Each structure stands twice: as C-alpha cells, then as structure tokens.
Amino acid sequence: MNLPAGPAAGLRLNDQQRIAWLRLIRSENVGPITFRALINRFGGAEAALEALPDLASRGGSKRRIAIASRESAETEIAVATRLGARFVCLGEPDYPPALRAADPATPVLAVMGDAEVLGRPSVAIVGARNASLAGVKFAAHLARGIGEGGFAIVSGVARGIDAAAHEASLATGTVGVFAGGLDRPYPRENRPLMRRIVDGGGCLVSEMPFGWEPRAIDFPRRNRIVAGLSLGLLVVEAAMRSGSLISARLAGELGRLVFAVPGSPLDPRAAGANRLLKDGAILVTEAADVIEALSPLVAGERRRHGTPLEEAEDVVMTEEPSDGERERILEALGPTPIDLDDLLAFTGASPGAVQLVILELDLAGRIERHSGGRVSLVP
C-alpha cells in the first residue's frame, strides 16, 4: 500500500503539517509502516493522531498510547534550527529519491548540511571498525574513484572503513548516517570528520529524535538507511558477525546491488566479505567495477522517481472488519511469522480488514514485524 500521490510535484508541508508528521512518527508504536497505513487511512497526520487512542484500544492495549505532544515536536524543531539542521519529510522535493523508493520509506529525516547531495546517485561503502591499514587505504582509494565517477558516498560515520570512505569523498560529496540524534554524534572522536562533512558540502542525516543516544538496536535501522540511500552497497572488510553483513542483507532486500572486496582467507576481517562473494556479491578490485555496474541504473532511477508524495485530501477509507473477520484474523495469528498474503488466503477476510486489524495490533504493541512483510504476535 503506497501513500497517495499529490496533485503537483515539489510541494512542501506547511508548518502545521510538519509538526503533525513529527508528532505522529515520534508517537509510541508508530514506525514507517504504521505511519504509512495511518496516513492512507485518515488522509493526514492530524486526523491520525486523533485516532491513535481508539485504534490502540481496539488492538488490545491495556493503557493509553503515548502520543508525542505538540510542545515536544516544536522543541525538537527549535533544537534542529539552533544546530543548523532541519526536517525533510517523505514527498518533499529534497527528500532522497532512492530512499523514497525503499519500502517502507522513513517518513521524516533530520538533515544537517547541503541536502543537494541527497538527490545524487549514491554508493554506500561500509566495513570493519577495526580495519587493517590496507583496508583503510583501499576503501579511501575506492571512495575517491567512485566519487570522481559522479556518485556520492554514503556511510555510517563509524571508525575504520566508514571514516576512510567519508574522508576520501569530502571533495566529491558524502552523506553520513547517524544511529542516534544529530546532536549525539557517535563515535565522539569522529566529530571533526562530521564537521568537515557538513562544511564541505556534504550532509548528515538521521531518523532518530534529537537528544537520542544511540543503542545497539538502533544501528541496524541506521544501516537500512545507509543501504536505502544508495544504488549499491560495497563491503570492504567485514568479519562474519559484522554489522556490515546486516547492511549487505538489507541492501539485497531493498533490491540494491551488493559489492565486496576480496581479502586474505587468513584475516578474519575479510571472512564476511569473502562470504558475500561466495553468495553472489559482485567482486570489486577497482572503482570502475562499481561504476560500470551502476551506471545503467542511474538513468532508470531518474525515470522511475516521479511526482513526490504528500498528504492527500481524498483517501479511500479502509473498510471496517466484521466481527467474524476480526475473530478469524486474530485466531490465525501466532508467534510464528506469517505472510500477509497467506493470512488473507487462510482467513478469507478482505484486504482492508486485515490491514486495519494489523494496524490496531501494531499500535497496541502486540505485533512484531519481520523481513519480507511478515508479522507475528508478540509472545
């Protein structure tokens, strides 16, 4: 289910809409998928905010859902403004086109720096934090060459390979993605690099609130944005239990090309990249390998990204499930992840009824979402 297209391209949310969008995505149990479903059902964030308590109650929540206040949203916008950042919402003209095509797309991004770089075709370069000197030098060599080939470089501003890729692409355009709020840089020793990114015409982005300290569970979300911003993702060095392999898996799920640099079988930091190559990743020994593979996709991406999306006034409301449909849907769900198409076929319920019941359960905190659009009940 996609957000409806607006009547004209390039429109921005007004101040009231932007506050409402920020409140909605900051409210309890509202992630990108739930946000999209709410906007589709109610036609706007203000109406969705009003409906949250009733939806969560119908989903079985035993307490009132926590809804972000207008004051908290205004405070966050003020903090962003003071730090030279701003919020870009899905469908606005400077929202990253590649990320818009990632399903589900992040509804609201905090951006610090020049957002122009977000509109350019990009390549993600990721790898080990404890990278070897050879790995760091080769990552910088590749980032420089790919940048000179017309691509922006995206990475996670971590130590090692990430930092090398950013440093080498400062002159050609680079994007750093945070796992926490933009006012909570991590790691702290990379603060000077982050400042050079912003001052050099690149930008820093995050989906997390200002003031949010990054936790271990936040880094996969960061990695998904790194992958989503890019046409392809390149792994330079990565151990078998590396976050870079999570990034590669997410890139594959989003339909991005996955590249890897081969390494010595004797170095555990190369084991993950070598595994990716065995599994079908594209082997890279020079920047031209990446540029040649991605160049045919650039024109296709530009044709595919059309009218930005915005809040719609005319939205077909999702139908209410009958008592029998609701009961069949709840009985079919359990702790084992299932595909929504299988749920539709098994219950015989209408798509609208299934979507609404899943939305209610999600807001009540009773649904867990899995890769491939599968869902399960929280045990």
Short account of what is shown:
The chain is an alpha/beta fold and 379 residues long. It has 15 helices and 11 strands. 43% of the residues lie in helices and 12% in strands.
Q: How many domains, as an integer?
A: 3
Question: Per the principal axes of the C-alpha atoms, what is the gross shape?
Answer: globular
Strand content: 5-15%
User: For the record, what CATH class of the largest domain applies?
Assistant: Alpha Beta
Largest sheet: 9 strands, mixed
Write a structural description:
The protein has 379 residues and is an alpha/beta fold. The chain folds into three domains: 15-111, no CATH class; 114-304, Rossmann fold (3-Layer(aba) Sandwich), CATH 3.40.50; 323-377, Arc Repressor Mutant, subunit A. 43% of the residues lie in helices and 12% in strands. It contains 15 helices and eleven strands. It has helices at residues 15-25, 32-42, 45-58, 70-82, 97-100, 133-148, 161-168, 191-199, 219-228, 243-253, 271-278, 287-304, 323-332, 340-347, 351-363; strands at 85-89, 108-113, 122-126, 152-155, 174-177, 203-206, 232-235, 257-260, 282-283, 367-369, 375-377. The strands form two sheets. It has a nine-stranded mixed beta sheet, with helices on both faces. It has a two-stranded antiparallel sheet with strand order 10-11. Helix 3 (45-58) packs across helix 15. The longest helix has 18 residues, at 287-304. Residues 1-9 and 305-317 have low confidence and may be disordered.
